[in-house]
Amino acid sequence: MKLLIVEDEEELANSISSFLSNEHYLCEYATTVHEAIDKVNRYSYDCILLDLMLPGGSGLQVLEELRAQQKNDGVIIISAKNSIPDKIEGLKLGADDYLAKPFHQAELAARIESVIRRKQFNNNAVFVQNELVVNRTAMTASVHGNFVDLTRKEFDLLLFFIGNKNRVLSKSALAEHLSGDFADMFDNHDFVYAHIKNLKRKLSEQNYGNYIKTIYGVGYKWQA
Amino acid sequence: MAGLTKLLHKPIKAISWFAFLVLVASIPVYVLVTERIYLAELDESNLNEFKRIRAYLIQNATSIDELNQYIETLNALQIGIAIHKTETVCTALPIVFEQFLPIHENNTVEFERFRCVQGCVDVYGSTLEITLLKSAEEPHETFTAIALITLLFFGLLVSGILWVNRQIAKKTWTPFYQLLQALQEFKLGQQKSIQLPHTTIQEFHELNTAVGALIHENIAVFEQQKTFIENASHELQTPIAVLLAKLDVLLQNSEFVDSNHLLFNEIEAPLKRLARINKNLLLLAKLDHQQFEFNDTVEIVDVGQHALLLFDDFIQQKKLHVSTQLHPLCVTQINKFLLETLLYNLLSNAIRHTPNMGQIVFESHQNSIVVKNSGTEALNVQHLFERFASVENHKVSSGLGLAIVQEISKTSNWQVSYTFHEGFHVFTLIFK
Fold it and tell me: What does the H/E/C string look like for B35-70?
């Protein structure tokens, strides 16, 4: 998958690229509106990460350009502003998602995966890993053909893991994925452990491949 | 207010005193001048009479016997003429003088003042000395009349001054009082500049200009400060985002993480807190700037229930007991984001500060909501809603949660209050 990171803050762009780059994702950069529009005109990307505050204008201009060219690149707006009017404007202009800085990279990764899936695979929602089959639309999971009864939160966690294969997810990232923005208003995120414990238990009962690994002291990883 | 006199009373006191002194001083002056004129008139009258008599005697006395007759008659008439023969030589000019003579009246003797002219005339070889007298008794009534009239005029003057003063005050000082009121009503930060009253008076115009410039400057500085805070926290967002992003990358380094998992957590926690504080600062700056629209209609019950669901994990973790009393409450003309932020802040605050197995209550009434949580001691209301006033939990608290609650209330025109009642911390929010 080709990703375009439109961000004028170099270090941030580098971090995102480091986190995302693997055998599946290839990252390109643009640091100005002009550069972004230029790249977008020449290539097609699976997902564009778009900062709004850029030298030379606003990221929204890139969106307008995409619209004018009738391109189907996925767009996730990443913005420091967290302004509702901007969010509405962006979504109206065709952005697929909006994530306010600062964010957990894992959250961004999950959203990218979600956008790409929606745009390209028509939300064809089935994920398969060996004996594990997860149906996103039906919200079901089965191991060796046996249905696993998961709660909403456990299912959410499962999807989050799948969207971040082979990446270490911190407890904080997991908590925020489940509880949204206000998760870090609380000091105790142990409930994450509880949910994951239950998830592992239910999957293990059906003998899944033990993909959820505990990274001692910091979080978890889905090892594929 | 003790020690301060009203502006318009000050000149009146001074003027009144001045008028009083002037008028009092005028009384003796009047008296003296009147007397002077009066005496001068008497003297002139005497003198004229003397000339007439002299002329008459010279012309009409045809013999010494006739002359003596005239003299006898005139003396006997007692009309203020005394003529007698003298031996001295007649000097040409008559003299003017004053005399006090006893007057008998009703068995009493009083000395009265007389204005006299004494002259001589040569007739038939005799020198006649003619003395004319006129009573110069200043009647007491004159003095009294003058004093009374003066007082009357003093009264008229002062009343007139008061009346004129009031009329002037009504018109002339109006712009000043209007400006005074406008200044008293002006509140920095309410986005309304001061309305300067119209005036044709130069000094007030200058005052208006000066005050207007001062206020304008004040507002500009205030706006600059708000913008500065907003810009500053805005600038901070990016390096914070970079730090967190790098941390996420570092997390993927198994070599580092395996031997430094404690350190990793010790870096992440304060960094997340920094992010939260900055985010709150940004929100507060925006609230200061009044950058929100109020077009949403929201059912409070929905938001409340959603919040409780969202925080369910945290509630379960502390084994808190949640009870609700939900009366449908639909609020209009509000900003949904602000309402949610406020409610989430109140609820998360309540959850955080309730001891394990404590109680949380969420109520919605006809025009208000109440968030209660069990507690032991009342909080100090005075600084409760201030920014950074009390930062108890250094791990998580941003010190701004309740400040945000208050600012959102202010911006949205709601009322938020706190009491401690029967073992519960009670936060009440009243809409409009």
Answer: HHHHHHHHHHHHHHHHHHHHHHHHHHCCCHHHHHHH
